[in-house]
Design brief:
heterodimer; A: 54 residues; three-stranded antiparallel β-sheet; globular; B: alpha/beta; five-stranded antiparallel β-sheet; 22% helix; 29% strand
Chain lengths: 54, 385
């Protein structure tokens, strides 16, 4: 599973964990996260996230 | 361009660039200029303190350089440009080389400086601190091939760096004058929980302690602590706190206190000059970290676009990036009356700060308890309604 970091606040979206509090179940792949999902920490768009090097 | 004035933003950090980005969503045409004292590129400052764990290098942290930002946001970015003075009567900035740059509206997004402790010894000048990407580049160079690091200050930045460096294989000593880490944000038992987790990750704590002097010993530094013991390290990193950059405003006759004094609309007493982010004191409060900047930027962008809008701050929990001890804190207001109610087990720590009537005013969650963040945040009062 991959991780993606917010370019503004460095919050990590981890596919293994998802974002269950905001309706994204654990195991949700990044491409399946809806485009209108926003960073739960700072509110920037999904497009402002980048993949973390494994 | 002669005769063309527009919005000038001093500072290219998160505050400066977010105001510009939000403003462009509302106004595609008005000229905007960003002045930067460094390279002017955009990057995530919070990423600096967990870059080793996430496999980031100083180069990969830089998100977009100044040219790319200028292109993307259709504005002018002037790198390595220092502002010497604000001529408020003429509405112009005086730059280092004597150039006068007129503005219609001025935004001060100057940030804050690292507080430097007055340390004795011939090694005091070799103590590093990280306040921007260039500093971080120096730190990474200094760490190359080295093993032992001392960090001064067990606040948010100190704890994050301690965790990141120890997980990356460095021996880390963390020194703080307080009795427990994150002393301003956590009750004592919460500090003990965090300390325990960081100790398991390899961090050695020296609490109730401080550094007297720093001496050079060959390539290394020797620290003499207040309690008499000595420590040797390859790199010493100071992270004892931030102080808002207020000098430029102060010398221009703008009211300052701890920060540049602005009202809830982020306006100074000069109707054409605004301030936000780490340099600003909004309605009596200096609000650190990322979330207040995002809220302030959106409000200020609307104001600059002609729709005066006060900044509204909801409860803004702070995420401490210590992977060995996931931590989310929404500290109660300074001076709030109430008590911490604490529950703790092997997997987590939960402290609720409640007033006499049982209303939630703040919380600290660690480990498994961080799952309750959203449910609890919805019960908190706004920081500034």
């Amino acid at each position: 599973m991959r991780q993606f970091a917010c370019a503004v606040c460095a919050h990590i979206y981890d596919e293994a964990i998802g974002d269950p509090e905001n309706g994204i179940p654990a195991g949700t792949l990044w491409e399946d996260v809806p485009d209108d999902w926003v960073c739960p920490e700072c509110g920037v768009a999904k497009s402002d996230f980048e993949m973390v090097d494994p | 361009m002669a005769g063309q004035t527009g919005i000038v933003i001093v500072g290219s950090g998160l505050a400066g660039y977010t105001v510009a980005r939000e403003f462009r969503k509302l106004n595609a045409d008005s000229p905007v200029t960003i002045l930067s004292s460094d390279h002017g590129g955009f990057y995530s400052k919070p990423m600096l303190s967990n870059a080793l764990a996430t496999g980031k290098t100083p180069d990969s942290i830089l998100n977009s350089d100044a040219v790319k930002m200028a292109d993307q946001l259709e504005l002018t970015v002037r790198a390595h440009t220092k502002v010497i003075a604000i001529d408020r009567v003429a509405r112009a900035l005086v730059l280092q080389d004597g150039e006068r740059l007129p503005y219609s509206q001025l935004v001060l997004a100057l940030g804050a400086d690292q507080i430097r402790l007055p340390l004795a010894g011939d090694g005091a000048g070799l103590v590093s601190s990280v306040n921007d990407l260039d500093d971080y580049r120096h730190l990474r160079d200094a760490l190359e091939g080295k093993k032992e690091v001392v960090i001064l200050g067990a606040g948010l930045i100190g704890c994050e760096f301690a965790n990141d460096l120890s997980v990356a294989g460095y021996r880390v000593h963390l020194i703080d004058i307080g009795e427990w880490p994150l002393g301003r944000l956590l009750p004592q038992s919460g500090g003990a929980f965090l300390q325990n987790r960081l100790e398991s990750a390899g961090v050695t704590f020296h609490l109730n302690n401080s550094v007297h002097h720093v001496d050079r010993v060959g390539e290394r530094l020797r620290l003499t602590l207040a309690k008499g013991e000595t420590l040797e390290a390859d790199v010493v990193l100071s992270a004892v706190g931030l102080k808002p950059r207020i000098t430029l405003a102060q010398e221009s006759g703008i009211t300052v206190n701890r920060g540049i004094v602005v009202d809830q609309s982020l306006k100074t007493q000069d109707p054409n000059i605004y301030a936000l982010g780490d340099c600003a004191e909004v309605a009596g409060r200096v609000l650190p970290f990322v979330m207040p900047i995002m809220h302030a930027s959106r409000a200020l962008a609307a104001t600059l676009a002609g729709n005066p809008t006060p900044a509204i701050y909801p409860a803004m929990p702070v995420l401490v990036k210590t992977p060995s001890c996931p931590t989310t804190i929404s500290p109660p207001d300074i001076g709030a009356r109430g008590d911490w109610k604490i529950t703790e087990d092997q997997d987590g720590f939960k402290a609720l700060f409640q007033d006499e009537g049982g209303s939630l005013l703040g919380y600290a969650l660690m480990g498994a308890a961080t799952k309750e963040k959203n449910a609890l945040t919805s019960q908190l009062p706004p920081v500034m309604g």
